[in-house]
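Q: What would this chain look like folded?
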Amino acid sequence: MNANRESGSPTSLPIALLCYGAAAVAAVALPLAGSPLAVNLMLRAGSIVMLAISWNLAANAGLISLGHSTFWGLGSYAALLMGNRFGWPFLPSILPAMALGAAVAALLAVITGRLRGIYFAIATLALSEGLRVIAVMLPDLTGGGAGLFIDQTLRPEPRLTAIVTALGAVCFALLAHLLSRTPFHYACRAMRNNEHASQMLGINPLRFRITVLALSGAIAAFAGGVNIWYGGFLDPDIGFDLHITILAQIGPILGGIHTLAGPIIGGLATLLIAELTRMWFGEQGYSLLVYGAILIVSIMYMPNGIYGTLRRLCAPWTKRRAAAKTALVAS
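A: My prediction, written as structure tokens:
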């Protein structure tokens, strides 16, 4: 893989910052000026993009998660309990949610330090299911199977939750972009290609595992913590829903795994697919069937995702443009 395939963006940092700034302005303006439907779509888009970025960060280091709902659910419960038990308002409650997600992810990295590939993936899936069962068995804390409603007196305006979610997606996308320009990115890439060989280069795999998983867990917990304030109700099946893990994987795979733009493009495409499926079939459950069919087609005919396919189609035009510039300079 070349550098552009890995970073997902050949643009300079000033241009990238300008794009992120424009996205941040849109993240604030659209919910404020839009209808309740626009607010809902903005919150869902931000949530899916954050999940995709979170999952892709771990995948960049060769850590394929099948239990990303773990961090979403922990963030949701942490934010809810901070509000219900301690009276914390919306924004402050997100901080302990992120801290809990990062701490559990770091602990997972330590415990699974010797696991690779499918064995690590199965461990993450088992953790998610185990936490769901634990949440059911602790009704005094989590409400058990009956669930809990968040304190309605503390709930913010839906527009505020949508703005925070969208801004969070922009900020975490910017963070991923900045990380891609540091040695951290190349260390994760080396671990993904061959973790044993990376040790010969002086890389401590465990340290990078802990760092990347903690960051990934914090982002997913942020998304879960914000969503509970919007939805207002949480039970174990909602918090640790396998559908969350599926959404986290579909975005990067559909958009382009191991790239910067891929998770964003794939996340937005996933939301579009879900909305079109809901309008055509009338039931949201059909979206899973459609996701599966689209992923099969994507893997067969677009192995590099939407972003990689677009770059491949634009490559001849880019080469001609570069050749024209070279000829102009030479003349």
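The first helix runs from residue 3 to 7.
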